[in-house]
Write a structure and sequence with these properties.
It contains nine helices and four strands, in the order ββαααββαααααα. The protein is α+β, with helices and mostly antiparallel strands and about 200 residues long. It has one domain. It has a four-stranded antiparallel sheet. Helix 3 packs across helix 9 and helix 5 packs antiparallel against helix 9. The protein is globular, with a radius of gyration of 18 Å. It starts with a strand and ends with a helix. About 15% of the residues have low confidence.
């Protein structure tokens, strides 16, 4: 389980810091693996290898949604209620978390590795395969991230660091060329224009 302390501005413009919990049970890992045709780990490696900002952002969003929950007071249960998850996904805390994970390879790698522990992967794949032993090696996955103000993917960016879409809606072509950090910045601007 990951306990993530997130600082964000709430809808009353107050700076708030709260702890949020993220965990993926073996059952939920198996379900996700099944949803991906039994190739969840292959998919994760492909996302990492492609360095595709849009696909990486989609993966991070899905990981957050599938792993968010609340820990019981006694610490024995982890509840993953759909309504509570949806409420979190519509919150400024989620926006702050997505911005952090999208702008830092280290933070994203830590989060992914904290959810996909080697024990979870081993147990989930053992049960899926119906075998006594499955050997799995894990590695830290680095998701693409870039400095929003200095992106090499946009060769027409002005030298002073201001991107062409900084004061307007980006075109579909510009969206395809954006780094993960830039996409998050566009999303943040769209959701919280005064943030």
């Amino acid at each position: 389980m990951i306990v993530k302390s997130i600082t964000f501005k709430d809808f009353r413009d107050q700076k708030v810091t709260e702890e949020f919990y993220f965990h993926l049970s073996v059952r939920r890992f198996r379900k996700w693996n099944k949803d991906r045709g039994g190739d969840l780990m292959k998919y994760l490696k492909e996302v990492d290898a492609k360095q595709d900002s849009l696909e990486a952002l989609d993966f991070i969003e899905e990981l957050i949604a599938r792993s968010f929950g609340t820990r019981s007071e006694d610490g024995r249960h982890f509840d993953q209620d759909e309504a509570a998850t949806e409420e979190f996904l519509e919150s400024p805390a989620y926006d702050a978390l997505l911005a952090e994970l999208g702008s830092s390879k280290e933070a994203a790698g830590e989060f992914v590795s904290g959810i996909f522990t080697s024990e979870l992967i081993r147990q989930g794949l053992d049960m899926a395969a119906g075998q006594e032993q499955v050997t799995v090696t894990t590695e830290t996955v680095e998701l693409p991230a870039a400095d929003v103000r200095n992106d090499k993917a946009d060769p027409e960016a002005p030298q002073e660091g201001k991107l062409p879409w900084a004061d307007r809606e980006p075109t579909p072509e510009e969206l395809r060329k954006m780094s993960q950090a830039q996409l998050i910045e566009v999303y943040r601007r769209k959701v919280h224009p005064d943030y």
